[in-house]
Amino acid sequence: MTAKRSLPLSRVYQLLEPGPVVLLSTSLKGRANVMTLSWLTMMEFEPPLVGCVISDRNHSYGILEKTRECVINVPTVELSRQVVGCGNTTGRTTDKFAVFGLTPASASRVAAPLIAECYANLECRVFDARLLSRYSFFVLEVVKAWIDPGRKDPRTLHHRGGGSFMVAGETIKLPSKMK
Ligand SMILES: Cc1cc2nc3c(=O)[nH]c(=O)nc-3n(C[C@H](O)[C@H](O)[C@H](O)COP(=O)(O)O)c2cc1C
């Protein structure tokens, strides 16, 4: 085994980053917003529960807290420019749908829009907000899910920190008890 070096604790997240990076859309009083999000995790199969950490410095935090609705949109590598753009600008001052050329589409169960260009869209409602004050952690319930059936092996983005991303590639089959 080669010698290992100490890793600064501030970089631990870069190892466990689950990805994929998503675009979280919200809407308040008819005005849609979108932010980039990579700190998210599955918590339950069905109904699907997804936990995500959203800093309260983000405009999206206040909208989600107020409306309790959002859409998790899953982009692929073709949307890289929009992914970094939406993660480096704020909806307080920017209409990101217009600036980054994203197309809002009506959702069926929530007021927040789907992003048409993304290969999957998960309509969500806030399921549990008890960890907000301590961890800015929203538990979301997916109430409706959409997928583009034409995309078999979507090349999703996975954030490795500091502007580095892995792009999902090959799919392999292994024996697994997980459904
Ligand atoms: C690759 C990437 C991943 C990000 N992941 C998160 C995240 O998990 N949680 C978070 O609060 N902000 C995250 N951000 C930062 C927000 O997307 C950023 O602060 C954005 O400007 C917020 O937009 P808003 O003010 O319109 O809500 C990420 C940014 C990038 C570029």
Structural description of this entry:
This protein has 5 helices and 11 strands; from the N terminus they run H-E-E-E-E-H-E-H-H-E-E-E-H-E-E-E. Helices cover 16% and strands 35% of the residues. The model has no long low-confidence stretch (mean pLDDT 94). The strands form 3 sheets. The chain has a 7-stranded antiparallel sheet. Strands 6-7 form a two-stranded antiparallel sheet. The chain has 179 residues and is of the alpha+beta class. A hairpin with a 2-residue loop joins strand 1 and strand 2 (31-37). The protein starts with 12 loop residues before the first helix and ends in a 12-residue tail after the last strand. Bound molecules: flavin mononucleotide. Flavin mononucleotide is lined by residues 21, 33, 35-39, 53-55, 58-60, 84, 87-91, 159.
Summarize the structure in short.
The protein has 179 residues and is of the alpha+beta class. It is built from five helices and eleven strands.
List the helices and strands and how they pair.
Layout: H1 13-16, E1 22-28, E2 31-37, E3 40-44, E4 49-53, H2 59-67, E5 69-74, H3 80-87, H4 96-99, E6 104-105, E7 114-115, E8 120-128, H5 132-135, E9 137-147, E10 157-161, E11 164-167
Antiparallel strand pairs: 1-2, 1-5, 3-4, 4-9, 5-8, 6-7, 8-9, 10-11
Residues 21, 33, 35-39, 53-55, 58-60, 84, 87-91, 159 line the site of flavin mononucleotide (FMN).
* Counted beta strands: 11
Give the strand order of the largest sheet, numbering strands 1, 2, ... along the chain. Answer: 2-1-5-8-9-4-3
The main β sheet shows up as: 7 strands, antiparallel
**List of distinct ligands in this structure:** flavin mononucleotide
First-residue to last-residue Cα separation: 34 Å
Model regions low in confidence, pLDDT < 50 over at least 5 residues: none
Structural class: alpha+beta
Number of helices: 5
Strand share of the residues? Answer: 35-45%
Radius of gyration: 17 Å
- Mean pLDDT value: 94
